[in-house]
UniProtKB/TrEMBL annotation:
GO terms for biological process: Mo-molybdopterin cofactor biosynthetic process. Pathway: Cofactor biosynthesis; molybdopterin biosynthesis. Residues 6-160, 466-624 form the MoaB/Mog domain. One of its GO terms (molecular function) is ATP binding. It catalyses: adenylyl-molybdopterin + molybdate = Mo-molybdopterin + AMP + H(+); molybdopterin + ATP + H(+) = adenylyl-molybdopterin + diphosphate. This is DEBR0S7_00188g1_1. GO terms for cellular component: cytosol. It holds the Pfam family MoCF_biosynth. SMART domains: MoCF_biosynth. It comes from Dekkera bruxellensis. SUPFAM superfamilies: MoeA C-terminal domain-like (SSF63867), MoeA N-terminal region -like (SSF63882), Molybdenum cofactor biosynthesis proteins (SSF53218). In the C-terminal section; belongs to the MoeA family. In the N-terminal section; belongs to the MoaB/Mog family.
Length: 721
């Protein structure tokens, strides 16, 4: 059998110009030769994926996550480049964040071989280890270095790869154990759980040695080894459990997944065994937003009456064409007299009068005569202009003196068409009134629909959004009788009103789902009810419980209890670092949305963090779901001057809340709203924008000075200070 190999070249230069890459092709031909020479089928390699990325941790990690997913079936990933000492060399760090089981032996072998060739090998910082069922090795960037390093280990790697091949059986068994736990509370499953947690052998170092020895003994016998692994699945779980502080692996979607090991009987890690380092790669905000938009559910179409207040803010799913001319008769623009323009000034007998009326008679007027008309009345055939009443005088009246007889037309230079709206001149029949994707934003647009007799339109359904707070410490502001004396440790739930109001500000109609306490069982039950209940939610937005605390249950519950797919769990931004985004499949038909699953945003508990994450990530997704085009999803970005110096965070892009105002010169200027700690919701007072402050690492300086330009993302009204 041939092991599938992925080759990832990490280089800023080659990512811009792939023709510069020599290492990728050199390794491909190395593998070609290897498989030609190889007599043993099980020592074959087949390069199935190649890619080039810049020296950016999140890009490297994205490829590794994809390639190490079960569906790709890649056993070996070789990265080339970025392992030196310059500040751009971040490959080892990016790879290490994902490795669950380091393989120092491989590193040792490669360095030993390199040092034999050159003392400069001390400049290399390779890492190697396992992600899921895939071995990852970081090679140097030069073709020669890469081949030499890999050559040092290639002949003995096949055995390791074959062992990895069998990891799946173990994972399956682990899953089966868990299913048993989940489905049969009580007798057999709790015994299994007890054994798992109390078995003295489980997880002891001794036990690990024991297993390792066995593996060693059988290292030349794949089949036997395989059986051995299966036999000891359960022990393996616990061994792992004990020894690995990063308790994560990759699920079948290739995404980081809390392992099912390290868990309490209920399935969620106990505090002593919780991960001590977040297993979630830290994404850049741009990547996180892209993932959110890629995974945003498809919009649904519905019909809505033009009288429905929900129409404002809705997006049309189909173009609308005018079914008629507006006006659909020649209409007078003024009150006056319909004339034949070539007749010129003079005294004319009045033939008849035409008033704006739904019962107008179709009449005509001849040269030498005039007809009185009101604004909006049909202009009689024959007349080609209307003269305003102000430019005329009554010369004589009919008997009784109540009706005009002859009128002096004083207007000079009357031209054909003067003061007449021709049929179709406001809007012609068949013309497109609104394109598909147009957002109805004002009453005038609704009037436009009404003006051509359109009563219903096809729009994208606004999302059904549930907002839920989590936390044992929260006092419910929505209690009927609100007791404002807080107990020690208690805080008012401010996230729900903040988030609900922000959503309303953007035209959405969220549903208040109240508070759930930091209890794993209750959390699962509440989330399950929200997801699978009759509400038919498209979005579930929670706040709190997504970081590293012992009661931060949201992520494990999403994965292990709700079978959700977590797309990301950390972003290199401030505030909002642990912002989490998942998709969860509905398992009930009740009130189901058309997509069959929902988007789940688990926002951080810190009040400013939750609001910032809402503005940067949730609103664009909701807008996409609502049918808006890509260019209109994010908050509007504008360039402003800084009213004061702004200190940069070392590594995270920061979004302080600012007040943008128009200064005395008419320039837009941004001023901080005060202390920006993520717990301080007061930073939203007077705020109308988020300032985007790049990190110190990105700008290579620590402060943006007063008067410098920066970008703000606007969410409120801008006026004077
Ligand atoms: N060891 C680490 N600790 C923390 C990290 C980390 O990386 N390692 N990240 C910090 C960051 S950054 C944030 S942001 C917070 C996020 O915390 P959680 O999402 O887990 O939220 P909680 O722990 O539940 O609460 C945090 C904070 O927010 C208050 N809160 C929560 N909900 C509400 C609400 N509805 N209304 C008002 N205030 C609320 C809560 O009382 C806490 O003070 O984690 C850091 N920790
Ligand atoms: O992300 Mo946290 O929001 O820095 O406090
Ligand atoms: Mg927490």
């Amino acid at each position: 059998m041939a092991f599938k190999v992925g080759i990832l070249v990490v280089s800023d230069t080659c990512s811009k110009d792939p023709s510069q890459d020599q290492t990728g092709p050199a390794l491909i031909s190395y593998f070609d030769n290897l498989s030609k020479e190889s007599k043993r089928q099980d020592h074959n390699y087949e390069v199935s994926k190649t890619a080039i990325v810049a020296d950016v941790a999140s890009e490297i990690q994205r490829v590794l996550i994809n390639w190490s997913s079960d569906s790709e079936d890649i056993r070996l990933i070789l990265t080339c480049g970025g392992t030196g000492f310059t500040k751009h060399d971040i490959t080892p760090e990016a790879v290490s964040e994902l490795i669950t089981r380091p393989a120092p032996g491989i590193v040792h072998a490669m360095l030993t071989e390199s040092l034999r060739k050159t003392p400069y090998a001390i400049m290399a910082r390779p890492v190697a280890g396992v992600i899921g069922k895939t071995l990852v090795i970081t090679l140097p960037g030069s073709p020669r270095g890469a081949k030499e390093n890999f050559g040092a280990v290639s002949s003995t790697l096949c055995h390791a790869l074959a062992q990895l091949e069998h990891t799946g059986g173990r994972e399956l068994h682990m899953k089966m154990n868990r299913t048993l736990h989940d489905t049969e509370p009580g007798s057999s499953e709790s015994k299994l759980g007890e054994k798992c947690n109390s078995d003295k052998r489980c997880g002891s170092d001794q036990d690990q040695d024991h297993n390792n020895n066995h593996n060693h003994k059988h290292e030349h016998n794949h089949e036997h080894n395989h059986d051995h692994n299966n036999e000891h699945n359960h022990d393996h779980n616990n061994e792992h459990n004990h020894d690995h502080s990063h308790s994560h692996n990759h699920n079948h979607h290739g995404l980081v997944k809390h392992t099912l090991i390290n868990q309490t009987e209920s399935g969620v890690p106990s505090v002593v065994k919780r991960p001590r380092k977040s297993p979630y790669p830290m994404l850049e905000i741009e990547d996180a937003l892209q993932i959110v938009l890629e995974n945003t559910l498809k919009p649904e179409v519905t019909t809505i009456s033009i009288e429905d207040p929900e129409l404002i803010g809705s997006i049309l799913s189909k173009p609308i064409f005018s079914p008629m001319d507006v006006p659909n008769f020649p209409a007078s623009i003024v009150d006056g007299y319909a004339v034949v323009s070539t007749d010129g000034p003079g005294v004319y007998p009045l033939d008849f009068a035409s008033c704006a009326s739904a019962h107008s008679e179709k009449r005509s007027v001849e040269s030498g005569l005039i007809a009185r008309v009101t604004t909006g009345a049909p202009v009689p055939a024959g007349a080609d202009a209307v003269v305003m009443v102000e430019e005329t005088e009554v010369v004589s009246t009919q008997e009784g003196g109540k009706e005009e007889d002859r009128v002096l037309i004083k207007a000079q230079n009357v031209k054909p068409g003067d003061n007449i709206r021709k049929p179709g001149s406001d809007l012609s029949k068949g013309a497109e009134i609104f394109a598909a994707g147009h957002q109805i934003t004002n009453g005038g647009e609704i009037g436009l629909l009404a003006s051509v007799g359109i009563r219903e339109v096809s729009v994208y359904q606004k999302p059904r959004i549930g907002v839920l707070s989590t936390g044992d410490e929260l006092r419910n502001y929505s209690d009927t009788v609100l007791d404002t004396s807080l107990s020690y440790g208690e805080v008012f739930d401010s996230n729900r009103p903040s988030l609900i109001s922000l959503l309303r500000q953007f035209g959405f109609k969220p549903i208040d789902l109240d508070i759930v306490r930091d209890n794993e069982g209750q959390l699962e039950e509440t989330l399950d009810a929200a997801i699978n209940g009759k509400l038919g939610l498209d979005y579930l937005i929670t706040s709190g419980g997504v970081s590293m605390g012992e009661k931060d249950y949201i992520k494990p519950v999403i994965q292990q209890k709700l079978n959700g797919k977590i797309h990301f769990g950390r972003i290199r931004m401030k505030p909002g670092k642990p912002t989490t985004f998942a998709t969860v499949k509905r398992n009930s038909e009740d009130g189901s949305n058309a997509n069959g699953h929902l988007n789940f945003f688990a926002l951080p508990g810190n009040p400013a963090s939750a609001c910032v994450a809402m503005l940067l990530l949730v609103i664009p997704s909701l807008r996409k779901f609502q049918g808006l085009s890509e260019k209109s999803l994010q908050l509007t970005h504008i360039s402003v001057r800084l009213a004061e110096p702004m200190k940069l965070d070392a590594t995270r892009v920061e979004y302080p809340r600012v007040q943008v105002f128009v200064d005395e010169n008419g320039d837009l200027v941004a001023k901080s709203t005060g202390m920006q700690r993520s717990s301080r919701i007061g930073s939203f007072k007077n705020a109308n924008a988020l300032l985007r402050l790049p990190s110190e690492a990105e700008l290579h300086k620590s402060v943006l000075e007063q008067g410098e330009r920066a970008t703000v993302l606007v969410f409120g009204h801008i006026g004077p200070l």
